[in-house]
Amino acid sequence: MDLRAATWTDVRDLETNLAVVPVGSTEQHGPHAPLGTDVLTAEAVADAALERTDREVVRAPAIPVGVAEEHRQFPGTMWVSPETFRRYVRESVESLAHHGFDRVVIVNGHGGNVDALREVGGRLTRSGEAYAVPFTWFEAVGDHGADMGHGGPLETSLLWHCAPDLVDEDGLEAASEGAADGWGEWTSGANLAYDSAEFSENGVVGDPTDGDERRGTELLELASDALGRLLEAVAERDVTRPEPR
Amino acid sequence: MDLRAATWTDVRDLETNLAVVPVGSTEQHGPHAPLGTDVLTAEAVADAALERTDREVVRAPAIPVGVAEEHRQFPGTMWVSPETFRRYVRESVESLAHHGFDRVVIVNGHGGNVDALREVGGRLTRSGEAYAVPFTWFEAVGDHGADMGHGGPLETSLLWHCAPDLVDEDGLEAASEGAADGWGEWTSGANLAYDSAEFSENGVVGDPTDGDERRGTELLELASDALGRLLEAVAERDVTRPEPR
Amino acid sequence: MDLRAATWTDVRDLETNLAVVPVGSTEQHGPHAPLGTDVLTAEAVADAALERTDREVVRAPAIPVGVAEEHRQFPGTMWVSPETFRRYVRESVESLAHHGFDRVVIVNGHGGNVDALREVGGRLTRSGEAYAVPFTWFEAVGDHGADMGHGGPLETSLLWHCAPDLVDEDGLEAASEGAADGWGEWTSGANLAYDSAEFSENGVVGDPTDGDERRGTELLELASDALGRLLEAVAERDVTRPEPR
Amino acid sequence: MDLRAATWTDVRDLETNLAVVPVGSTEQHGPHAPLGTDVLTAEAVADAALERTDREVVRAPAIPVGVAEEHRQFPGTMWVSPETFRRYVRESVESLAHHGFDRVVIVNGHGGNVDALREVGGRLTRSGEAYAVPFTWFEAVGDHGADMGHGGPLETSLLWHCAPDLVDEDGLEAASEGAADGWGEWTSGANLAYDSAEFSENGVVGDPTDGDERRGTELLELASDALGRLLEAVAERDVTRPEPR
Amino acid sequence: MDLRAATWTDVRDLETNLAVVPVGSTEQHGPHAPLGTDVLTAEAVADAALERTDREVVRAPAIPVGVAEEHRQFPGTMWVSPETFRRYVRESVESLAHHGFDRVVIVNGHGGNVDALREVGGRLTRSGEAYAVPFTWFEAVGDHGADMGHGGPLETSLLWHCAPDLVDEDGLEAASEGAADGWGEWTSGANLAYDSAEFSENGVVGDPTDGDERRGTELLELASDALGRLLEAVAERDVTRPEPR
Amino acid sequence: MDLRAATWTDVRDLETNLAVVPVGSTEQHGPHAPLGTDVLTAEAVADAALERTDREVVRAPAIPVGVAEEHRQFPGTMWVSPETFRRYVRESVESLAHHGFDRVVIVNGHGGNVDALREVGGRLTRSGEAYAVPFTWFEAVGDHGADMGHGGPLETSLLWHCAPDLVDEDGLEAASEGAADGWGEWTSGANLAYDSAEFSENGVVGDPTDGDERRGTELLELASDALGRLLEAVAERDVTRPEPR
Description:
GO biological process, one term (chains A, B, C, D, E, F): riboflavin biosynthetic process
CATH class of chain A: Alpha Beta
CATH topology of chain A: Rossmann fold
Cofactor (chains A, B, C, D, E, F): Zn(2+)
Protein name (chains A, B, C, D, E, F): Creatininase family protein
GO molecular function, one term (chains A, B, C, D, E, F): hydrolase activity, acting on carbon-nitrogen (but not peptide) bonds, in linear amides
Oligomer: homohexamer
Keywords (chains A, B, C, D, E, F): Hydrolase, Metal-binding, Zinc
Shape of chain A: globular
C-alpha cells in the first residue's frame, strides 16, 4: 500500500508489519542519464516487487537526496552529510515502526548510500526499534552485477525500460566515449580517490551503450524477484537478538 | 528545470541562481485525503509557478517526510525530529548553493514545517551560504487562508484539482462529520494541545465538503501567482547583510 | 515560591506540581528602551500572576539570553543559537520535573523565542517528562496585541509601569521618528528579511510614544490575568497522551 | 555598563573591549541559605568590582542555571548538562565578542561550573573568537579559601553582607549540626562520591555559623579587589597565540 | 618515527608529511585468539612497512577500540559507536595534520572499521585538512584475501608469526570445530544478520587450523609490501580537488 | 586479566565486576621525555597495581590520545576535543559494563584529562550504567605530588624506572635549563594562559634532574599501592544513588 495515496484509515486496516522505503540520490549520472536515476530505479524495483508479492507491504515515499558528495564537481548533484542522511532515514523508519511496521527493507539505488544504510539498519535492529535491512538492487542481479559502473550499462538499461524518455540519446555517445573503466583509483586495495571527478571526465563509469531495453527488463525482473525473496526472509526471520555467550 | 529529469550537462548550461525545493510531509489528512497531501500540493504549486515564470529555475525533488509527530496517533503518519528535518533541508539547499543556485525558495505544504524552515532560512542566509526563503502555499491564497484547517476545504479542493483520484469520496462524509472546528485547544493565547488527536477525532480540521474542484483551481492559481511574485522578489533582492549600527 | 530566595527545605514542603520559568532576551529595544526589556517584562508578568493566584507555584529564575541573532547589528544584543536555547530551557525544565514540578508554564517576553519554546514544549510533553506550555505575554492582551511591534507601544508601556527609570526619555523622540511600521518585509506571505536592521533603522517597530504608564498598568493586568487562567488550565488538564487511532 | 539597563545606543558609545558575565547556579545550599546563593554572590562580586574600577566594562545578565546535578537529591535544585551549559555560556560570550567585547571575565559563584568554564574559555581563546577567563570568587579570597565548603561559612558570610534577608536564621542551627566536614569521600586522591547527598545529610559542608556579616564584608572586598586586578590583567594581556616551536 | 618514543624535538627535526595511524579493535576472536588481535596485527603490518621504507614516516600510537558492537554477545568485546569512532580518528588525524603530517594512511586491522574509516578519510580529504586513506591489511594480501573470515586462517597465521604466545593452542580445536563457513546470512545480496552470534557459535569464521606460522610470515610480507607501495602513492599523489565540471 | 591477550572464553570464566582502563595522552614532554609518557606511566601504574592485588580485575587497552590541545605548539602532540574524548572513554566503559564489568577505575596519566574524566565518571555513575572513578597517579603519591610539573621530576623519575631507554639524556640539560617553575600564569586565582607555550619555552615545568630511578621506584610503589586501595574501595562501595531528601 502506497502511503502517499492511502488515507490513515486505509493504513489502519492493514494487517502487516512489513514496509519498504525507497532511497536514492539526486546526482550526476553522466551526460545521458538523469540526476534522478537512483531514485527512479529504486522506486521501480520496489514497486515491481510489491506487485509480485502476495504479502501486504507498506510503501513509503522515496527519500531523494543521499550521500553523494563524491559527485559534487558535477552540476546539479545534491547531497547531505552521511550523518544527516543516517538520521533522516533512521527516524523515518522509526516512525513507521511506531505504527507496527517494524520489519523494513530499505530499497536503495545508490552505491554511496550503502555504508550509511548498513549502519542505520544495525542501530535500529540492535535497539529493537525495528528490524531494518538495506537492499541495493544492483547487488542482486546475478552476473550483471559485475558491469555496474555509474551511469553505465546497468542503470542505463533499467532507464530504457522504466523511463526511456529520460535517457538523453544525444548524450549517449559522449557518455560512452568519456566513460571510465572502473570506479576509483586503486593501490594496495585502497581507493586513492574520493571524488568521481578524479577518475571520470564525464562522470560515467562503464559503457552505457552496453545496455538496452531488453537488458533493463531482465534487470528489473531479477532485482524485483530478489527483493521479493528478501521480503519473505525479513517477514519470517526470528529477530530476537542472540543471548550473551 | 527539473533536476530529477535533467542531466548534469543540462544543469551546467543553465544561467540562473534560482531554485525551488518542494517540502511536504507524509501524514494523516483525515479519512478522505491521502497521507501524501502535503507533498502533492507543494509540488503542484511549485510546478504551476515554474510553468508561469520566464525565469530559469532549478526544481529539486520534493522532500517527503517532515515535522509531523503531532499526528503520530494516526496510522501511517511519518515524521523526523525537527532537528533532523532542519539538517536535511539545510544541507540539501547547501548542495544546490554549491553549484551557484544560491537563491532558494522552499515551497512548503505543511504547517508543522513552518517554524523549522524559517530557522533553516535564517541560518543559511546569515551565514551567506544561500539566501533561502520558505513559502507556505496556504499562507498566500488571500481570504481563503482563513479556512485552512487540516484535510479541510483548502487542501481537499486542491486535491480535487490536482489529484482527484486520491480523494476518497466514501471517506468524505465521515471526514466532514468528525472534523474539528479549529486547530488546537487555546487558553490565554497558548495552545494546550500538542497532538492533533487531542482535538480532532478523525484528524480533520475544517469541513472538507466546503471545497470543490473549482476552488482548487482558484487556489492553485492564487498560490502559484504568489510564488511567482516571490521568485521575482528573491531574484532581485539585495541580500547583503546590513552593516552594524 | 521564588526558588532564588527559598531553601531546599522550603521547596520540599511545597505541595504542588506547578512551576513557571520566565524567559526573555537581552537585545536591542531601540534608543529608548533597555536591552533587558524582554526579561523584565516576562518576570513582571510572571510575578504579577503568581501574586494573584491561590495556587502554590514554583518560580524559577529568568533565563536571560534567547534567540535574538536577528538583532545582531545592534550593539549589546546577546544571543545563543536556537538549538542551544532549546537545550538550555528543556534541561532546566527537566530538572524542575525531577522534583515533581512537572506542569510548567514558560513565561516568555520575546517573539524570537516563540518557535523554539513551542518545540521544547512538544518534546517535553510527548516524552512524558513534563507538561510544558509556553505563554508569550503580548499574545494574551486582547486587542492591544495588534500594536505589538518591537520596543513599540506595548513594551514601552509595560516598562513605564514596571521600570520607569529604564525608559530613556531622551531617546523616545528618536525612537518614534525612526520606527518601522511593521515587522519584516513581506511578499506573498513570506518575510524576505531575516535581520531587523533590514527594515528598521533604529531597531524600533511601532511608535513607542503611543504607550504610557496607564496602558502599561492595563497590559500587566491583562497579561497576568491571562497567565493566571493558563496556570489553572495547565494544573487541571488531563495530560495523558491520546490513544493511537 | 549593565546591559540589562542600557539601550543599544548607550552600548554603541562605549569604548572598551572588556566584559563580565556572572554565572551561578540555582541549587540547594542547606536549610538556611537560598537556592540562588551562587548567582547572588557572583553578581555581588562582579558589581562590587565594577564599582571600583575606572575601566568601562560591559556587564551581562547573570546565567542562573549551571552544572549542579550533584545536588539533584535536594528539592528545588536546577541544572543542565555540562555540554548544554558550555554551549550556552560559549555562545553568550560569542555574541558579546561580535560587538567587540572580546575580553571577557566569566565571574563564577559555583564550584560545579569550574571545569566547564575552563573548557569554554580554552575553546573561545584558542579559536580567537574571544579571550575569556573564568574567575571563581572563593578561589580569590586568600586564606579564607580553605573554609569554603558548601553553604558553609564563606557563602553564608557573603549572604549576611549582601542579602541578609535570605539567610534563614531558623535553619542555621540545623545547618550547622548536619554539616559535613569536607566535600566528597576520598580514597587515594579520588573522590568516590558523585552526589553531595552521599556525604552530607542536609547539603551543607562546613559550619555556616563560622560566618558573619563582618566576614562577608571582608570577603566581598577581597574578591572584588581580586576581580579588579584580573580585569586589569585581562585588558592588558597579549593574547596572540604562541608560535609553533 | 614512533611518536610514543620520540621527543617533540625529534619530531620537529623530521622532514616529512607522511604518517601512519594503526587502528584496531578489542573484540572476540574465538576461543583461541586474543581480543587484541586486530590491534596487534595492524601494528605489526604498520611497523613492518615502516622498517622497509626509506621515507620518514610518523607512526602514531594505535587506537585500540573500534566499531565492534556486532560482537557484543562475546565477553570482553569492547566498542564505541561508529560516530564516536569517526570523531576520535578524525580529530587524532587532524592533530597530526596540524604539525604538517597531513598525508596519512590509517592502517586498519578490523573489518567493522572499514566503512567508518572511508567516511573519515573522505571528510578529511575534501575539507583539505589532510589527505587520509585507510588501508586494511587483509584486503591487500592477494589470493589469501578469500580466506579472511574472523579469527580464521589469516588472522591466526599472522598471530603465529607475530605473537605466537597469544594463540591459545587448547582453544584451537574448539575454534576449528565451531567455526562458521562465512560471514553473515545472506539473501538477495543482503546480510540478514547484524551480530556475529547470529551465525557463529564460537565467534570464529573460517578454520584457523588452515593457518600456520609460515603463512603468517608470507601475509606480513605481502601486507607490509602493499602498505609500502601505498605510502609511496600517498606521498606522490596530487591531492588538489578536481575543478567543477 | 589483560583483555588484549585474553580470549573471550577466558573473559567469560572470570568472576569479577572490576576493571581498569588506562588513559593517557600523546603529547610533548620536553626535549628529554617521550611523547608517550602519559600512556606509559598510566599503564605502568595500572599493571603494578594489578600485580599486587588478589582480586580479579579486567585490564583494558590504554587509550592513547587525550585532551592535550594546550600543547599543540609542540610538534608531535596529538589531541582530540574534550567532547570526543569523553564520548570515547564513556562508550568504551559502557562496553565493559555490558559484560558485567561495571565497577571501573580509569587510570589516568595526564592532567589535561582530569576534568573530562570526572565528567564521564559522573554521567556513567548517575545513569547507573557503571560506577566509574578516575584515578590520576600523581595525585596519589603523597608529598611528591607538590613537585609534579610537566616532564618534570616525577614523570622523569617514573620513566627512569619503567622505560629508561626512552629518557633522552642529551636532552636533559636543555630540559632543566628551559623549564618553567610552575604551570600557568596566575592572577587572582585565575590562570591567564591556555597553552603551555605561553609559559614554558621547551614545554617542561619543574626540573627533571630532580628525579632519578630510585625516586621512580618509590613513585610506582606509592601510586600502585594507592590504586590497589582504590580498587578495594570501588569494589566494596555501595553505589546505589541516595534517596531524594
